[in-house]
Specification:
By secondary structure, this protein is of the alpha+beta class. It has a domain of about 40 residues. It contains one helix and two strands. A two-stranded antiparallel ribbon has the order 1-2.
């Protein structure tokens, strides 16, 4: 089951925008915000949280081959 992912978006009085991604690990947060960032303009600063350096849970695939 996939985990819930959210974006917390703050727009300051000066028009600057801060986006905080919740519930994402690794570089997936960049994929989540890409379209919004491109629509808003130039990214001036990017700060990463410790979850950026974590990996998503690995997917396990079990394959049974023919024996013979």
């Amino acid at each position: 089951m996939s985990k819930k992912q959210e974006m917390d978006i703050h727009i300051a009085h000066d028009g600057s925008v801060t986006i905080n991604v919740l519930g994402a690990k690794g570089k997936s947060c960049l994929d989540i915000t890409r379209d919004l960032e491109e629509s808003l303009g130039v990214v001036l600063n990017r700060e990463t949280k410790s979850s950026f350096y974590e990996q998503d849970e690995p997917q396990t695939v079990k394959v049974q081959g023919e024996t013979g």
